[in-house]
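Look over both lines before class:
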Amino acid sequence: MSEKEMQALPEAANFIEQIINEDIAAGKLRPEQVQTRFPPEPNGYLHIGHAKSMFVNFGTALKYGGKCNLFFDDTNPSKEKTEFVDAIRADIHWLGYEWARECYASDFFDTIYEYAVRLIKEGKAFVCDLSAEEIKNTRGTLTEPGTESPYRGRSPEENLRLFEEMRAGKYKDGEKCLRAKIDMASPNVNMRDPVIYRILHATHHRTGDKWCIYPMYDFAHPICDFLQGVTHSLCTLEFEDHRPLYDWVGITLGFDPKPRQIEFARLNITNTVMSKRYLKKLVEDGKVRGWDDPRMPTLSGLRNRGIPAAAVRDFCSRIGVAKAQSECEYSYFEACVREYLNAHAARAMAVLDPVKVTLTDYEGEELLDFDVNPTDESAGRRTVKFGKHLYIDGADFSLDPPPKYFRLKPDGYVRLKNAYIIHCDEVVRDAEGKVEEVRCSYVPESHSGHDTSGIKVKGVIQWVNADCCADAEVRRYESLLRDADYPGQDFSERMNPNSEKIFSAKAEPALAEAAEGEAFQLLRTGYFKKCTEGGKLVLSEIVSLKDNFNKPRS
């Protein structure tokens, strides 16, 4: 490769790109020939951990002008569904990625089978009658070699006959399997005659009942990569110990060029369920309303919650790609979301615990100006109707305030956002002592922006006009898990029973008129997504204004 071409290579941002640049420099491929694949198994919905894998696979190919396939690893029909395939496609599109080609392991079942037959004929694979438990018990330990199967010496002719009978459905699940003949004394346990085909009488979501034997992932993986033209197979770190088997399959079958497997650390986030098995259990046990429940870390859950796709991509970019395992604080993810919404979300007002306020000396009504988004001058201004009857939030009024309480209190002053300073003159309570109404007077000279009253107040609170506000259901969320993980602890022991709290709120009428799914910053409250359910306005929390992660809220 010429020096000029070397200088034109993209600058490596991580160790994967360094490896790719070295391969390009060595003349193994050109930049535009870089091909990766995103390989989900369609056995559940994708979660936020898969967003990092997407970022690595799609992003790497895009950087070099190459291609990334969407590859469905559908080698386990007992757990896979078309529903999950459709959900995965939707998640990838939501994050803004496009695949060059959509393919499935099942597309290659015939070819994989022929490769297995070839290994049998070459004496490199044999049919074994040991059960899964027996195979496990004879595999050995990290310090002791395994014991060879008593069926290892079967002739190629006998193995071929038995393998064909396996395919014909003559045997029950687990009665026989096909194993690669490698080395039972290998220091890598994965190389000790691994199972490469098993019997499984299950209807496949694409091939139906054509097959009753299915290749193991470790055997199908390198073959499918080669058949797709993958140059760099980017996997998470748990596959590092499987790489010798990946290479053995490719070398033994003569793949040229053989794809190169590179492992990177998966995304782990504190206090977050990052296992499809446990997520599935939450759904099946009714702990959540479905895979797309806003509390779920699934991509469909994040989308339903109102998390912007751009914020997810930004988060993946910031955490980077590393070889060593680490754990990211969930609050850092929230910070990325909060930063994006602060720059893009319009502002509005709502009160979660409405307290009626009457301005006894105010008459008429007026339109007050508000910034649509104070961080973006181009967003412009909006108007909000102000009048005699208002609601403020219950958290902004106290009959018995603590020291340094700067919100509304008896005989106290407070400023209404972008409006006037008001004074609490009288509190009307019912027979049980509950506040029914707070009667106030306003200071006409204190209009926000040109205050000449001389009254100094430290508190500024949000409000809504009681005569034209909208009823709203406000949903606020906390983590599904209430504390840190401890050894031996089950997820069921960590469930947070208060992960969703619902409030009957009052909101600006503009929120009811806004587009479905639009995000807003509710002043002094948080970021929320507007939606309508059964004709009812629902404001679903996206993220708090501050880092409240794992801190209980009243």
